[in-house]
Amino acid sequence: MQPTPEQSPHHAYPDHWEADVVLRDGGTARIRPITTDDAERLVSFYEQVSDESKYYRFFAPYPRLSAKDVHRFTHHDYVDRVGLAVTVGGEFIATVRYDRIDATGRPASAPADEAEVAFLVQDAHQGRGVASALLEHIAAVARERGIRRFAAEVLPANNKMIKVFRDAGYTQQRSFEDGAVHLTLDLEPTAESLAVQRAREQRAEARSVQRLIAPGSVAVIGTGRNPGGVGRTVLRNLLAAGFTGRTYAVNSAFAADQATIDGVPAHRSIGEIGEPVDLAVVAVPADRVPEAVTDCGEHGVQGLVVLSAGYAEWGAEGRERQRELVRQARSYGMRIIGPNAFGVINNSDAVRLNASLAPESPAPGRIGLFTQSGAIGIALLSGLYRRGAGLSTFISAGNRADISGNDFLQYWYEDPDTDVALLYLESLGNPRKFTRLARRTAAVKPVVVVKGARHSGSTPPGHAVPVSRIPDATVSALMRQAGVIRVDTVTEMVDAGLLLADQPLPAGPRIAILGNSESLGLLTYDACLAEGLRPRPPRDLTTAATPQNFRDALAEALADSNCDAVVVTAIPWVGENGEAESGDGEVLAAALRTAAATGPAKPVAVVHVEIGGLAEALAAATSTAAVPPVARASAPAAATAPTGRAVPPTAPAGPSTPTAPGDHLTQQRPDTGPGDTPTAPTPGRIPAYPAAERAVRALAEAVKYAQWRRQAAVPGKVPEFLDDTIDEAGAAARIDALLGPDPDPRGRSLGHDEACELLGRYGITVRPTLPAPDPDAAVAAAARLGYPVALKTTAPHLRHRADLGGVRLDLANEAALRRAYGELTDLLGKPTELQPVVQSMAPRGVDTVVRATIDPAAGAVLSFGLAGAPSELLGDTAHRLVPATDRDAAELIRSIRAAPVLFGWRGSAPVDSAALEELLLRVSRLVDDHPEVVSVALEPVVVATQGLTVLGASVRLAPPPARTDLGPRRLSNY
What we know:
Number of strands: 43
Helix content: 25-40%
Radius of gyration: 33 Å
Strand content: 15-25%
Number of helices: 27
Largest sheet: 8 strands, mixed
């Protein structure tokens, strides 16, 4: 919506304040500035507000707005007077307004930094979290306009509004004056206000997903009159799954007298149904979708699954059609899965929803699956089905123009039916939010991700999202920092998902291997070493081993306190006639499941070669119920009886928060309560793999994830000693001066002295260098710095290239310096081209490089590696998101492959890792405190046995990019 000529021309309409938000009940609404065109909407809105709410707003009976009121409430300068409205279906449901005031409460302009604020919400929409969302947005607007505090007068009886202010998390003061509660809110975000905002975001977005996958009624728009077709297929699948709600078939081409189709009520429009419809599955051509959306929106449908194609995957025209679809749906408060979606499945017994095109409906289980590709979704469903795995929920989001993997992470975080989240992603629309949500979810249940389109440098067709410039290796490192299990293929995702869903987490990397094939055991042993595990020598049961032998050996391995997990290998038995006997798979499976159920809770995986019925029998389970919370409590280690056999740990009675399967490093059996005598255990699923490498890779991922979980339980911190040596205010003032009042949006690179000065304010000292335009200047510089010195070129094509002869070290006197200067210019060119400098020699050590960059999609990233070939040629660089903690810094320098060089490789002295970690933390603080610092490179950083020396530094400044992850809640607009 654009301003009219009556608007003040020097305060243009701030369209960046427009936002779609998810409310507490999962519905959507739009927040936007109020303009002079809104007079009729404002009057209509006010007429629908109760007298009591009007009284609370104006402190007196106020039945209607006067013409003067309407003019005042629709004319704003967007600086000192701002009004925002919440709209659904284009009509107002709430408003908020602030007026800048001075210390006496009179209208004022800047530099006054306080404003009076007032809200009004239609009674029918109170309790939906509308006022809370409005407060977030009006506070962000006020901060942008230089307002630091809100003042509000609230009647004591207006408990709802008082609660909105009280629960917001801002620093506030309250007093009682003249019969009203006077509230003052400091608008600077606090840790509490950010936590409140994110908790509300989680509840709202989870609820919006729940409305889509747990509807009470479903209408299939586009149900064909003849068998076949997309709509008719979805209807058939709904009926076959036994959907517990009401189902309707909708097609405008139905005859007026047609009452049913496939036993389902048939209607020509949603409006004809005459009953509430929660979810509409849209399966009509793209040009007819807007009409269907309008029909749904006008009749209260809560959400849409759009299977129709012809959107962003078709190019620019389709992309605009997709944007309009999202705008239209959100205007009615609806969210969308799709377009170009494959559908959704919810296996909850209370829902039994299969609103998809899946040819095979998966069995109920504990895995949640999200995919952006219908084809990959079909493959995953088929693979899980063949291996006997069950799903709690399945979503194939297609172009995911609205609902995305982030939304389902919000839902799965608290979903009691989901223990493991699997995601196939081809793009990350909001990487910062994804890593934040993934970290929180991974703290309670595993998150396994396959990232498609890793190397294309662009998003797949249909995905209108920002493109990240950071390499895929960096994305992978950041995911692992957030606790995400990143795998390369969908097969690996299924392999890991099966193990994590059905087995406890391992307490460590010690792996026992047993089986009836020495060769298969050795292959498994080698695979364990390759994955960084610590395998014990394989135990060969010989080819004569019986199922009872397997059971006894597995029980013994599980009871061993030096074993954290077991891999069982099995090949078919060979009979006396020389033929393989593969029909005893069920017997072997029963033996293994019994042993696993009776022993301590440790993960077990089976590698088998052509044993008929084994995989199916191992996958079978008597129940898909979640492990009771008491069985999921973590414990340091299994208690051990005098005989050496582990005994089940006890746990306190009472409820606890559900966590992932096998937060159990030790686990009480589901059928055993505290103090109870254990009864016969119920055998559970054991994952089976056709190759040792696949089983071991899945187990290795579980080991790394379990380690992350243990570490995440005690988060790292930023050491307080840094505060005493950091001049944050001085750095901010210097950055403002360097950028100037009208900074170039492209930014600017700092000169050497400017960079050194800025870094110095954060306790980062760069070894001085002096220019040497001629031999005499070089000698003078050396005399000033003191011998020995280094002579280096600073030309861009020779910087940090000692291999090209651009560096001369350990020059002990004037003669050596002059000789080196002559050699340098003779070999590489004139001094004006080489730009030589002189620098005093640093103590010997290991050359490293520290960098921090701002990616527009992922945010600030801190990187570390060894200087030269290891990082530049081999890509041996580690990454962490900023802000980095002490634990992040320690892990950063230890996670590169060449890390042994820093810690005494081949008898060398270990470097000062503490000094290196401190430097990383200082760089992290710099870019976190000042988003204008978009790039820092320290190269080389020579780390000695005592201390380190920064020999080169470059810094780039630019106007800070928008931080959508720190602003008020809003849905992405693609």
